[in-house]
Amino acid sequence: MINNKRCGEHEMIPTEDKFVFLHEPQTIGYWMQTIDWEILNCVLEQVHLHQLMEDEDFLTPIGKASALSGALSHNHLTLVWDTKYTHKVQHELHKVENGTGILLMKTENSKYFRLLDNDRQLDFHLTLQPPCDPKQTSCTNRTTSFNMVGQAKLLVVTAAIMEKYPPITVKSAAVIEKAPRTTVENSTPSSDPELDSAANKQYLQDLSTDRDNELGRLFQSIECDVRKAKHERAIIAAQYNGWLAASLKLPLCAKLQAFGQTAVVIQCKVINATFETVITPCGPQPKFKNYTINLDGWELVKYSPCYWTNGFVNFNDKPYAFRNNTWKRIDPNIILPERTLAHSFRYEDV
After folding, report:
1. Is the pTM of this model over 0.90?
2. What DSSP string runs through 123-166?
3. Tens digits of per-residue pLDDT, 31-56?
């Protein structure tokens, strides 16, 4: 049909930009019979297809086509092309969109950047291009060009907004976290909706990453403060009670002795002691050989008939009372009032 311009057995009629054969079937009816008549209609039209790179899929009026197939069909439409009619032209840059954004350094490496547009919620990951490309008509000595990560056919040209900044010195440059904003005057809708969709997805993903990084830095700061408080608590507690300080997850049977801001760990020997009870005028007294338990509840000291005078004894940081001829542990039964904190937040419908 392409070569002879015929639709089956019928010749196609040329019009302005196509060849057409459009006819209704001529039918003759018969009494008490139903007859179906069919006739093939054809339209042959020449269209121009554009392919950015060889061996790459490209868009057509009826969908995306494979560069190697040579034909594409959709319902009753068939599109055929031949590479021998290909006309190659030099690539020309055209503006997809423009807008205002903030250019940030992605990492400490100066080769990777982020272009952030908070107003439109777009985020582009960029890599620095070599100095001015002659093909870029908008490239000047005041602009910087970048390649867009994941978009090999797109590039970004930025121009800094000249605002009043103090002179940059080595000291001031070391504390600058954000580069000057880069912009063009007016924002225009993008001619590539998929680009904005991908950039918006990148914006949301990077926003989540930024929040996670901020939480990570907050946790590191809290951990640092906890370590400082733990050290100070150990020093303070060691000056009052070495065994109390030794409860700060130190090795088993270790005692602290404070010297200014430094604490010395004294390693002791662990023994299992079974105490008998001696009733004296000062009350019941635990006794192990010639020793009793120290007030701190961990250390043995020389036995004295009136070492414990209030009827309570401290065994390994646990209070005990002498009842029914034995030492009974005292369990707390009063809970101090505290504030109730929210454990989670509910999701709200938009």
Report:
1. no
2. EEEEEEPPS--TT-TT--TTEEEEEETTEEEEEEEEEB-----P
3. 777 778 888 888 888 887 777 766 67
| Contact indicator for 60, 79 with CB cutoff of 8 Å | yes
- What would the DSSP string read from start to end of 231-271? HHHHHHHHHH-HHHHTTTTPPTTEEEEEETTEEEEEE----
Partner residues linked to 319 by β-bridges:
314
Q: How many CA atoms lie within 13 A of 99 on its CB side?
A: 20
Per-domain residue ranges of the chain:
6-85, 100-191, 276-329
The set of residues, in sequence order, having a beta carbon less than 8 Å from that of 328 and lying 6+ positions away, is 320, 321, 322
Interval 303-319: pLDDT, tens = 999 999 988 999 988 99
Compute how many other C-beta atoms are within 10 angstroms of the C-beta atom of residue 292.
22
Q: What is the Rg, in whole angstroms, of the alpha carbon atoms belonging to the chain?
A: 43
pLDDT in tens, 255-282: 787 887 787 888 778 888 899 999 999 9
CA 4 to chain CA centroid, Å, is 61
Torsion sign across C-alpha atoms 326, 327, 331, 332: positive
Task: Please count the other Cβ atoms lying within 10 Å of the Cβ belonging to residue 190.
Answer: 18
Q: Is the pLDDT of residue 284 over 50?
A: yes
Residue whose pair of structure tokens reads 């209030």 in the numeric block: 310
Question: Is 98's pLDDT higher than 90?
Answer: no
Cα torsion 321, 323, 326, 330 to 10°: value is -40
pLDDT of residue 338: 80
Which residue has tokens 């008549």? 37
